[in-house]
Amino acid sequence: MKAELEDKIRTAQLRPTKQRIALAELLFASGNRHITAEKLHGEALDAGVRISLATIYNNLHQFTEAGLLREVVVDASKSYFDTNVTPHHHFFHEDKGLLEDICCEKMAVTNLPDLPDGTKISSIDVIVRVSNANNS
Fold it and tell me: Does 96 score more than 60 pLDDT?
């Protein structure tokens, strides 16, 4: 697993440092997931990886720029990092602070406005905010 992660990091044109490999193990070891920098920092500390929150953020943004992660911004103060980089949308459970994938085939985005001159759509990201139906 470690060698695969090193290759994944190298293929993304990043240097496979000990900290990056440790973070990659936490991020990619158990399938697709959505995680905040703060939660990943806690998991790293619990796993004995001595790393600052600032370094976590730097690496998450580098992984995102390299195409290994996708950043999902749910509001101005909260971002999640998604290990599933294929096109898809999300439910955001407001009461739990959790993201859940929505398969693209289950959604259709229609009636888009005319695009500004000289532009094209690069992607459409839909976040459907949900809360517990019993919390009225």
Answer: yes
Residue 63, φ and ψ in degrees, nearest 5: -60, -40
Spell out the long-range contacts of 24-28 with Cβ–Cβ below 8 A and sequence spacing 24 or more: 24/63, 24/68, 25/1, 27/63, 27/69, 27/81, 27/83, 28/83
Mean pLDDT of 26-51: 94
Tell me if 55 sits within 8 A of 44, measured CB to CB: no
Strands, E, within the chain: which ranges? 34-35, 70-75, 78-82, 88-93, 98-103, 127-130
Give per-residue pLDDT as tens, 45-66.
999 999 999 999 999 999 999 9
Instruction: Determine the residue type at 104.
Output: C
Closest CA to 123 of 80, 98, 74, 86: 86
The rounded distance, in Å, linking the Cα atoms of 25 and 9 is 11
Please, how many CA atoms are within 13 Å of residue 118, restricted to the half-sphere of its CB? 0
